[in-house]
Amino acid sequence: MHTSLLPSSRRFTGAIHVERRAQGGLESRRISSFVDGQSIYSSGEKAGQAYHVEYGAVRVYRVLANGRRQILAFHFGGNWFGLQNEDLHRSTAEAIGVTGLKSVSLHEGPHIWQGLFPAVLENFVSAQEHQLVIGRQSAVERVAAFLLEMSDRSGHSHRFDLFMPRTDVADYLGLTIETVSRSLTKLKNKGIIKLHGARGIEIVEYRVLQNLCL
């Protein structure tokens, strides 16, 4: 069963701390707008900024030695990213669609890191969960776990639109786009999900989808 390792009450409490301590003055900061595919930062560039997604979405990825892209995380509205205590970025962040961000310097003082600790913890837990997903042997299991994750991040909605194209889904799950498409078709043919256009997903049999991830 897909369950978050960080209870919703903890997430809500963390959001309050971030709002009060890390976002001090964030509301007055200018929103920086990015177009689809525009780089926010690249691997090897100087770090030191934390980014808050105001609208849109962001993909964070690394390019492996074989040249393949591995997406590490997706960040949606309300999420923080770029949280690292290192001089240089080890990954690249790009906008998915039109995206608006606000940023704060991680060098403004210890209160910034104290306020952002819940976001750091949540990102760490999400990274652990992602490793569990891509460690699954079955492609259908990976896709099922991904759909449950997206449902959870859409407010536990059973019908939602994916922000990202299927190429992103494939690179996130360590699969090919053809395998992702076949897995979605299998789930659809079994009556577990319905597909609405290129990105619309409707989970019809939620518990069946959960059982695939046991």
TrEMBL record:
Gene3D superfamilies: Jelly Rolls, Winged helix-like DNA-binding domain superfamily/Winged helix DNA-binding domain. GO terms for biological process: regulation of DNA-templated transcription. GO terms for molecular function: DNA binding. It holds the Pfam family HTH_Crp_2. Residues 137-207 form the HTH crp-type domain. Keywords: DNA-binding, Nitrogen fixation, Transcription, Transcription regulation. Signal peptide: none annotated. CDD domains: CAP_ED, HTH_CRP. It comes from the Bacteria. Residues 34-82 form the Cyclic nucleotide-binding domain. This is Transcriptional regulator. The lineage of its organism: Bacteria, Pseudomonadati, Pseudomonadota, Alphaproteobacteria, Hyphomicrobiales.
